[in-house]
Design goal:
mainly beta; Phosphatidylethanolamine-binding Protein; six-stranded mixed sheet; 3 helices; 9 strands; 11% helix
């Protein structure tokens, strides 16, 4: 994992530093070895915008590859799409491929969010059904390098709402987003972004 190639954006600028170019997102994913490590094809059609609420009342909108302090990631996030995605429905998944450490990811992937039935309302993704896995705040263990937390957007298949592979009681460890996407006919993600989060100092 070549995190040294990533461009990190200072926290004070994050409110305004969202992704604006699909090609830059692809380069950030490639530099962080995400398609290789997740075994996915990443050729996005749209920009996925992920915003995290803050206790100050402000919102941080992710820029692909940005590093955030853990206390800025409590969430839950909101999602939006920029580009011609259609009305939906969509599935959003969030995974950590670096657990417990990037050097020894024996528990990966950790499923940090999995929800479907999102619809596009003026660019904002709305969902009126419970998530399969509600958002879990990043918690990399003490002594670990920063983990990658990857958000992926899929077009929802007919099989998604009837799948039995994952439910709210299924372990979040040892998840495999590529296998799940193949088993439920989600195909390749149409959008994505990611953040880096290190353990609390």
């Amino acid at each position: 994992m070549r995190l040294s190639y990533l461009t990190l954006v200072p926290l004070f600028s994050l409110v305004f530093a969202q992704d604006t170019d699909i090609r830059q997102v692809v380069r950030a994913f490639d530099a962080a070895n995400i398609p290789q490590d997740l075994r996915i094809r990443f050729a996005p059609e749209v920009l996925l915008e992920v915003s995290l609420p803050q206790t100050s009342g402000r919102t941080i909108t992710l820029h692909a590859g940005v590093q955030l302090p853990r206390n800025a990631t409590a969430g839950p996030p909101s999602f939006a799409v920029r580009g011609d995605a259609g009305s939906g429905p969509f599935v959003v998944a969030t995974v950590d491929p670096d657990a417990p450490t990037p050097q020894d990811p024996t528990a990966a992937q950790i499923r940090h969010f999995l929800g479907g039935n999102f619809v596009n309302v003026g660019g904002n993704l709305r969902n009126n059904t419970p998530a399969i896995s509600e958002f879990l705040q990043p918690t990399p263990p003490a002594g670990s390098d920063a983990h990658r937390y990857i958000f992926l957007l899929f077009r929802q298949s007919r099989q998604f709402n009837t799948q039995t592979e994952v439910n709210s009681s299924t372990s979040i460890s040892l998840f495999d987003i590529a296998k799940f996407a193949a088993d439920t006919n989600l195909g390749s993600p149409i959008g994505g972004t990611f953040m880096l989060v290190a353990p609390d100092a």
